[in-house]
Amino acid sequence: MDTNHARLVPCHTERVVGGTTVVEVRGEIDIFTATPLMARLDHLTAGVHPDLVLDLRPVTFIDCSGLRVLCRTRNRVLARQGRVRLVGDSHRFLRILSAACLAGVFEIHPDLPAVLFGAVRQDEASAAAG
């Protein structure tokens, strides 16, 4: 029996860039790590109009529990009139989303700078107009 309890907590970092919360998730999103990750994402999406970017490039494995976390987070964000974007460039991850009929459900970008540049540009345009 595996007694490596460090695996039970997903490894991630969070930062805010131009009003967008960026969460970089590393390692595996599976039955062991999904619940604590979901709790953290629930906290981050509890407010009005959450703007969330999930950088999944460092994720090495995702199972149906991980897909459930992504779907739940998306639904919470949309219910609060927010926006969620995924960053992922792995063909394996994109195939998993496609096989689960989720490829067209998420806004997916290949890299983080393009996502953040777009978010900051929209903020600047809003500030200039307001």
Automatic annotation (TrEMBL):
<dbReference type="InterPro" id="IPR002645">
    <property type="entry name" value="STAS_dom"/>
</dbReference>
<dbReference type="Pfam" id="PF01740">
    <property type="entry name" value="STAS"/>
</dbReference>
<feature type="domain" description="STAS">
    <location>
        <begin position="19"/>
        <end position="119"/>
    </location>
</feature>
<comment type="similarity">
    <text>Belongs to the anti-sigma-factor antagonist family.</text>
</comment>
<protein>
    <recommendedName>
        <fullName>Anti-sigma factor antagonist</fullName>
    </recommendedName>
</protein>
<dbReference type="InterPro" id="IPR003658">
    <property type="entry name" value="Anti-sigma_ant"/>
</dbReference>
<dbReference type="InterPro" id="IPR036513">
    <property type="entry name" value="STAS_dom_sf"/>
</dbReference>
